[in-house]
């Protein structure tokens, strides 16, 4: 356990989480992987001082969304609910009065994600919040590889640009609901963790099938597609 | 929403339930059943062009419910012949029939746009069918209704009311409205040959016969002349009373045309005297009623040519829609219909101006009546606004010049008034021969075009586009042709001018975004309407005009311009076919739309309501709009802007 021997013991659910990704094979066809599309509502954007208010996640198997296999709950932030965040996600202090603390739902959430890749729109932010609490309570971050739909959308846009013809649309937005509108996806209410997760799941399916003109077959293809994007590194 | 939800994994998202609650026939199900449906469905995405079902191959495991997007359903026979069966959009299903029958897919299903579907396990679907009579009834009913439709057929059969209802006019127009002009009579003792001469003079087929007191005692028709005079060798000097039919069959003026037709049929006659307040006011013939019913353009054509008074022309243009209706029912192509309308309108104009010249005397110098805009392109639909101008020959003689100016100024104004009475509304932009600016000698016209072409101002060019579609309509056509030759010659070399036009072509965005919602959004909720002329048709017109000017083509009709561009190999065959089809289909949609409005007694406009369209029409229209993007990228290639 060196050099982290002072850390508390890693929680079993997290051990299980890590075991799965130890020898992770990237070369299988995409539909053989499971994905969990995750979105959280937050009290603010700073992982150091802000907290999670709501978690929403939905599973994708065989590249199909399984709406019934979802994870959705409110949690009660330790430092209360700032008013300005309520304006965005419309979650009121009343709604979370009896909600559990994040610590209490974390195990279920990790179990829900175990074995799956995590997909999200600007997922780094959501993972920063989650990993802060998994580190604090369970002894380490989650090991799931993550896929950012925002990056995929950027790659897709880049691909389109080659024969892109639209003189009015230079102001590109990568906001989730704007992308949904632009691609003609079914649109859901914004700023509800589960609806946003579903929206992201639709976006993910769309991009995975459309990228490289449908030529994304394996998980590796997907990573490569993301890497080929010239502004990435 | 549950606050503390330990059981998070088994509750289906609200949005999924909402979807099912809003579509037929799932909305009939109770809350618990909807929950069960939502729990057992999954969501899949099929990019445009994906085969979801392959005929006779695919084992159907799920009922597919389209959440967003659309599919086409088609059949392929042994020879590989493809028959399009249907388009389905949001909230529609695929796979129900094979599941119920327990067979493989009976048809090919291919996505025509990016499509998201809810997939419901077939076991669950069969359970629903079994347990919910209303639910199963829906599917049974839809099976019998859904099949066998194709694009134009659908337009004709489902949008234009069937012919039996098409005789609607016969039930609403009273016969007295068909009576035109003075009562045409002849005294009973007049010779037969006088009667015949008078009928020829008036271009009519009957005369009412009067006695000494002026009372109407009978009728003589051309049939009487044939059967009783020519066939029997009767001398034409005999009095008319010897061959007349007496007494004359009458009908009250307020009776509708249908009654008149019934009476004619039962009595085996073709003429009826129309009686109003005890007085006979004229004759109505079976031919009048046929024209009203719009059965043949030829009748109307003859009627226009035989008009002897300007006022007599007034009601004729109103009959044009009736003829168009018949043409649409018979499946005429839109370009043929617009040409027919143009010919009829041209004849009305020809007749009108000829009668005016008869009245006012010959003009001091030759002139040419110019038709602009859609009239110039021979693409008129119903009641297109007037767009016209007058061009007369230059003269050096000052006196003649002044005389010409006065003559044509008055002539232009009067002609416009008559045209308004004929039912052609004034041009809101005042581009009419009554406007002194557009009633000018040749040299000034040439000056106008030189200004537009050689010293183009962006705004002026925009306003001037309709002038570039002019066509000589009446008078000394050579004058108009000379002007066309001149502008064709200079325009093709003026890059700046063409660039302005090209820029204009790129400014209208194809209505694709609108359309994306169009095919997928629930009908009826969409209050948006589409200006099919401005957004859909004009890009084609603008494209054809630009290319015609660039390549020195003198033609003005859009389809003809495209054909000439193709023949001269300026556009590919593929593009030619695509544009023509797209353009004509939109014209068709517009015709049907305007016809419907007119039959509802409204002023026709160009605003299409998506909820009036079937999925198939929407799809075809959408494909038509996609051609616009293609045209625009071609323009971009030819005219690299900026």
Describe this structure in words.
The complex is a heterodimer of chains A (233) and B (642). By secondary structure, chain A is α/β, with parallel strands linked by helices. The longest helix of chain A has 18 residues, at 193-210. Chain A is built from eight helices and five strands; from the N terminus they run αβββααβαβαααα. Chain B is an alpha+beta fold. In chain B, the strands form six sheets. In chain B, strands 1-8-3-6 form a four-stranded antiparallel β-sheet. In chain B, strands 2-7-4-5 form a four-stranded antiparallel β-sheet. Chain B is flat. The relative contact order of chain B is 0.07. The interface between A and B is large, with 40 and 38 residues.
- Tally of individual helices of chain A: 8
Strand order in space, largest sheet of chain A? 3-2-1-4-5
Helix share of residues of chain A? Answer: 40-55%
List segments of chain A where confidence is low: pLDDT < 50 over at least 5 consecutive residues: 228-233
Please give the domain count of chain B.
Answer: 4
List the secondary-structure elements of chain A in sequence, H or E.
HEEEHHEHEHHHH
Largest sheet descriptor of chain B: 4 strands, antiparallel
Q: What is the overall shape of chain B? A: flat
Q: Using only CA atoms, what is the Rg of chain A?
A: 18 Å
Unreliable runs of chain B: 1-9, 144-168, 516-526
* Relative strand content of chain A: 15-25%
Q: Strand sequence of the main sheet of chain B, in spatial order?
A: 1-8-3-6
CATH topology of chain A: Nucleotidyltransferase, domain 5
Number of helices of chain B: 27
